[in-house]
Design a protein that fits this description.
By secondary structure, the protein is α/β, with parallel strands linked by helices. The protein has helices at residues 51-58, 98-101, 108-118, 123-136, 153-165, 183-200, 211-217, 235-240, 245-252, 316-320, and strands spanning 6-18, 24-36, 40-44, 66-71, 74-75, 91-94, 171-175, 203-207, 220-225, 228-234, 302-304, 307-309. The protein has 2 domains: 6-90 and 172-273, Rossmann fold (3-Layer(aba) Sandwich); 103-166, no CATH class. An 8-stranded mixed beta sheet has the order 6-7-8-3-9-10-12-11, sandwiched between helices. It has a 4-stranded antiparallel beta sheet with strand order 2-1-4-5, with helices on one face. Strand 11 and strand 12 form a beta hairpin. Mean pLDDT is 88; it is low at 321-326.
Length: 326
């Protein structure tokens, strides 16, 4: 569990892509987020909301267009071809698709050893350390001499986890690490990550669209919609009393295997084009509670009893005593 001491902070972070047609797409628009020491923070939202972009920016893979990211007080600068500073080696990323993030032409052992050797570890010592990591994630030492295609999806993800652990990170950002796996492998990999966080004293941002898994493993949950945060709270509070209409909709959309023909509720409409986000509250075009003010007033993230949410009905309009508030 967290001791409430931030190890990773994102302050007003934005990420903008320049498209081939010269238009700009702001995938992340002014996000504030903190990860505390020893904490698992779940980051959820529909596909295309900016979760993965935010995760990649947090480790420096993607450059930010605004804002600041700090890890242990050190600014996180975008990666380049030079050697990554030692201060940032303790910040690592697990990619969503292990098959594309692992080199199919190189043996697994060589890929794990590279990071250690590049930073001065003896090759033999690096090989032994890598073998132990593979054993810790549930694979045999013989994995070192094999290639990516010789493993299942779940095994490849375990290899990716071992590679991320080679430099003994303090923070892991897991970018949808179980989405490409079958149900049994998903549970195994999720449980492995939780065990490693506790055993190694790490912190983790677990990015997923599967709220059921996030509910089981995370201390806090951050909900993202169309590039912005809409709610951040302790996970049990998110589930027991969601404050933002989008959070409520996500929870209601989770299928329930009750055997009675239950069908999950669906949000009306589609996610708006991020190149042309709606004015006011970005969620108002799909929100069942939207009122006239929602289309013109952009809600601010407000803190109430350790709950953070951005909804006019909960925050600005309630403070003004609007008759529309429910």
């Amino acid at each position: 569990m967290s001791n409430a001491e931030p190890i990773l902070t994102l302050n007003n972070v934005s990420v903008t892509y320049k498209r081939a047609d010269r238009t700009k797409l702001t995938a992340v628009a002014g996000v504030d987020l903190t990860l505390n020491r020893g904490e698992i923070l779940g980051l959820v939202g529909e596909s295309g909301c900016g979760k993965s972009t935010l995760g990649k920016a947090a480790v420096g893979i993607l450059p930010t267009s605004a804002g600041e990211i700090r890890f242990n007080g050190t600014p996180v600068a975008p990666l380049n071809r030079s050697v990554r500073s030692r201060e940032l080696l303790k910040l690592q990323l697990i990619f969503q698709d292990p098959y594309s993030s692992l080199n199919p032409r190189r043996k697994i052992g060589d890929q794990l050893i590279d990071g250690l050797v590049n930073y001065g570890v003896d090759a033999e010592e690096a090989r032994e350390s890598s073998a132990k990591l593979l054993e810790r994630v549930g694979l045999s030492r013989s994995t070192l001499t094999k290639y990516t295609h010789q493993f299942s999806g779940g095994q490849r993800q375990r290899i990716a986890i071992a590679r991320a652990l080679t430099l003994q990170p303090e923070v892991i950002i897991a970018d949808e690490p179980i989405s490409a796996l079958d149900a049994s492998a998903q549970a195994q990999v999720a449980n492995l990550l939780v065990e490693l966080v506790a055993e190694l004293g790490m912190s983790m941002i677990f990015i997923s669209h599967d709220l059921s898994v996030v509910r089981q493993i995370s201390d806090r949950t951050a909900v993202m919609y169309l590039g912005k945060m809409v709610e951040i709270a302790n996970t049990h509070e998110i589930w027991d009393d969601p404050r933002h209409p989008y959070t409520k909709a996500l929870i209601q959309a989770i299928p329930k295997p009750d055997g009675k023909g239950f069908l999950p509720l669906e949000l009306p409409g589609d996610v708006p084009d991020p190149r042309m986000p709606p004015s006011g509250c970005r969620f108002h075009t799909r929100c069942p509670l939207a009122i006239a003010e929602c289309s013109v007033m952009e809600p601010k993230m407000a803190v109430t009893q350790n709950r953070i949410s951005s909804c006019l009905l909960n925050n600005e309009l309630k403070e003004k005593g609007s008759a529309h508030v429910v």
